[in-house]
Design a protein that fits this description.
Strand content of chain A: 35-45%
Number of helices of chain A: 4
CATH class of chain A: Mainly Beta
Oligomer: homodimer
Order of helices and strands of chain A: EEEEEHEHHEEEHEEEEE
Distance between the termini of chain A: 44 Å
CATH architecture of chain A: Roll
CATH topology of chain A: Pnp Oxidase, Chain A
């Protein structure tokens, strides 16, 4: 397990604010799964909320609806091939944890596992909104615990240590962008 | 106006897939406004849909609810200070177009303007979901037209020409990340 440190809940939105692609992990009744989701965003500051799209065809959907919980894991560039794989293969066919060598570690509050080697983790409880879940595959969650690898995020700031240990942004096919240079601006 | 080329609607999600911060432009009854939104995401492929958070306190909220339309504009790094400014100042106090020198150009289908100098534009019609608008400030839109500066996006691909003409990802304070290197992976 990579090192992890609690992120104060009012700062949890900063783990997603720059729009990284995440891994959604889930578990229910002895089954577990992990999928990739570029379509995620923060939804509120405090208590922190998130939104994520989870397609009806996925095993993740079934496990999230049954458990009412999920974890958003922020993978690093080192995990890009793994992210592509778990975004392509279905958990209905086989255990994706064993297929792609994704390690899971127990979370603090929810039953879904934390994916090892990621940069940050948001443990979430589903805010039930059956209409938008059904009509748009759109799930809202309240963040009940948040964690980050202090080598990449601490004191409310991302500070990626190198070119590999940084978050990633999926485009399409096998193409991603790495999170690039940080810069500061002042109002004009 | 920067150059712009139509993006086929089934490829419009790629304009947002990597999680850039956007400018939300709106207009109604002779008033217009622009604000920044890090909290946006694609929601569907075809017909393309998007989700964006628009706080109750904003003039944008009033104009979007009244018109049922908005544009998501993808700004470049050259527009980062402007993005910070329109994310901080309120359109209730003064016309942000004149304050920050943001130029607007008529859109093809909706009444909200396209912000000049951006890299891409998604013209959207609100999909009315009053409950989630009220409870979460969450707006869903169907993309009815999409455009990109062909210097940065063409044939369904981003290909940023330099370090300045690339999309940006807001963190907090005055800090942004630029969209970084593109890379390809294969499944493990």
């Amino acid at each position: 397990m990579s090192s992890r440190q609690a992120v104060p809940l009012p700062k949890a939105y900063r783990l997603l604010n720059h729009g990284p692609t995440v891994l959604v992990s889930s578990a229910h009744g002895g089954r577990r799964n992990v999928m990739a989701a570029a379509w995620n965003m923060a939804l509120d500051f405090d208590p922190p909320k998130v939104a994520v799209v989870i397609d009806k065809s996925t095993l993740t959907r079934e496990l999230v609806e049954a458990s009412g919980e999920f974890v958003l894991n922020v993978p690093s560039r080192l995990q890009a091939a793994l992210t592509l794989a778990v975004g392509t293969k279905s958990g209905r066919e086989a255990d994706k944890f064993s297929i792609v060598g994704v390690g899971g570690t127990p979370a603090a509050i929810v039953g879904a596992p934390l994916i090892e080697g990621c940069l940050a983790w948001l443990e979430c409880r589903v805010i039930p909104e059956p209409h938008i879940q059904q009509a748009y595959d759109l799930f809202l969650g309240q963040v009940v615990a948040a964690w980050a690898d202090p080598a990449a995020f601490s004191d409310g700031r991302w500070h990626f240590p190198d070119q590999q240990q940084r978050s990633i942004h999926y485009l399409s096919g096998g193409t991603f962008f790495a999170t690039g240079d940080s810069f500061e601006v002042r109002q004009p």
